[in-house]
């Protein structure tokens, strides 16, 4: 609900700022369906959903295959991302989350660009790096559900397997890697990365860097459940600052709750060291350009295959890194973010606004409040926003909201919200 509330308050503010002539105290109503969350919460039995006509603004990740829900329109994720859009709507300023560190502006930028930190491509560590939290993966839309390996039976198996390596000082790690490999297909993606890292560390010869360094941040989410794995040198890694992460040649985005990590991807793209290149307009739209870039990076499917390809094709790998860095540098300029805002917010909302027909034009003599309050309506007022400021909303239907939240958005019981 908090993400939906965030999407609503930012949307009302951005609409007033971006379309001031349409949204005035005397304007006709504008009704649009909204959703929010790490990913679309849908009924799998009704997918693909091809009969929808009215647009649905999804504040969060959407399906990569647009044919699954053609009328769903991607909006920025609540949090940093939608906040960046609102800041642009308000003062036409690029937010710190998308600007370089030490850029002289206030607040400071947060992105680590390798070349600005004095790093050279050939001197970077040839490892695939990832640090993050232990999180579920698309919990409501993946069947069968993928798991985290916290069953007591798994720890029991690890103890039993240790006897197979009596003279090995890494018997615990070998036993854990062996057991987790057997469970590999059942694991969430981040734990698959843990398995690959443990195996890479065991296979690395003295003096060699393992190809993978994919671990959970110490003291992060579910840290208490990582203790037994940490004791055998698996799953948990040392803290690495954003600047130090830029010392690594390869980075990966491992899916979390919403199938991706929005902030993780945007923070990693600029890290590759590269000479400064002149900024220019991407030939494609900004969002389409980054999707194409990520698709290019995704060959072949297995991470170790990607690593082998990059090490075997260093010039092409560097060119990909250069384009990623250039893209993020452009996105952090007023010109670049302005283009993103126009393409991904203004244009789709303008089409919806132009197509919308107020209640009074299709049902003369009636208003939107008449429809809302009618006997056959299943809607209830829960939030009121003025849109005059970034934080202008109040929750007015707390009882209905609590019932909805207790049913996890209506998944596990029938929610009757109409009084």
Kindly describe this structure:
- The chain is built from 15 helices and 9 strands.
- The chain is an alpha/beta fold.
- The strands form 3 sheets. A 4-stranded parallel β-sheet has the order 6-5-4-7. The protein has a 3-stranded parallel β-sheet with strand order 1-2-3, with helices on one face. Strands 8-9 form a two-stranded antiparallel sheet.
- Helix 9 packs antiparallel against helix 11.
- The longest helix has 22 residues, at 334-355.
- The protein is globular, with a radius of gyration of 25 Å.
- Residues 274-301 and 415-419 have low confidence and may be disordered.
Keyword list:
419 residues, alpha/beta, four-stranded parallel sheet, three-stranded parallel sheet, 15 helices, 9 strands, globular, disordered C terminus
């Amino acid at each position: 609900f908090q993400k939906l509330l965030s999407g609503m308050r930012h949307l009302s503010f951005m609409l007033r700022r971006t379309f001031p002539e349409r949204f005035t105290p005397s304007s006709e109503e504008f009704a649009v369906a909204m959703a929010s969350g790490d990913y679309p919460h849908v009924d799998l039995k009704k997918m693909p959903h091809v009969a929808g006509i009215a647009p649905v603004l999804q504040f969060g990740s959407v399906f990569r295959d647009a044919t699954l829900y053609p009328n769903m329109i991607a909006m920025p994720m609540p949090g940093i991302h939608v906040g960046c859009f609102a800041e642009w709507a308000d003062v036409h300023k690029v937010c710190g989350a998308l600007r370089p560190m030490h850029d002289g502006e206030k607040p400071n930028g947060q992105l680590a660009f390798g070349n600005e930190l004095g790093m050279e491509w050939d001197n970077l560590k040839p490892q695939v790096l990832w640090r993050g939290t232990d999180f579920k993966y698309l919990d409501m839309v993946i069947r069968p559900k993928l798991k985290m390996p916290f069953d007591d039976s798994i720890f029991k198996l690890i103890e039993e397997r240790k006897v197979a390596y009596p003279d090995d000082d890494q018997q615990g790690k070998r036993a854990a890697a062996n057991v987790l490999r057997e469970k590999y297909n059942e694991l969430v993606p981040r734990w698959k990365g843990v398995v690959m890292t443990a195996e890479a560390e065991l296979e690395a010869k003295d003096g060699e860097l393992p190809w993978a360094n994919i671990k959970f941040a110490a003291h992060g989410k579910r840290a208490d459940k990582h203790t037994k794995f940490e004791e055998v040198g698996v799953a948990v890694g040392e803290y690495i600052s954003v600047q130090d992460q830029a010392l690594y040649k390869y980075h990966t985005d491992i899916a979390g709750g919403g199938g991706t990590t929005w902030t993780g991807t945007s923070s990693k793209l600029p890290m590759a060291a590269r000479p400064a290149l002149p900024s220019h307009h991407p030939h494609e739209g900004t969002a389409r350009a980054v999707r194409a870039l990520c698709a290019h990076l995704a060959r072949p499917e297995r991470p170790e295959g990607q690593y082998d390809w990059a090490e075997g094709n260093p010039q092409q790998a560097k060119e990909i890194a250069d384009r990623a860095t250039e893209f993020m540098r452009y996105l952090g300029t007023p010109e670049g973010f302005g283009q993103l805002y126009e393409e991904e917010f203004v244009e789709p909302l303008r089409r919806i606004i132009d197509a919308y027909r107020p209640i009074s034009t299709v049902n003369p003599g009636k208003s939107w409040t008449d429809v809302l309050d009618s006997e056959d309506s299943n809607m209830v007022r829960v939030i009121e926003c003025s849109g005059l400021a970034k934080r202008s909303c109040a929750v007015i239907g707390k009882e209905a909201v609590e019932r909805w939240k207790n049913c996890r958005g209506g998944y596990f019981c029938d929610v009757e919200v109409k009084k």
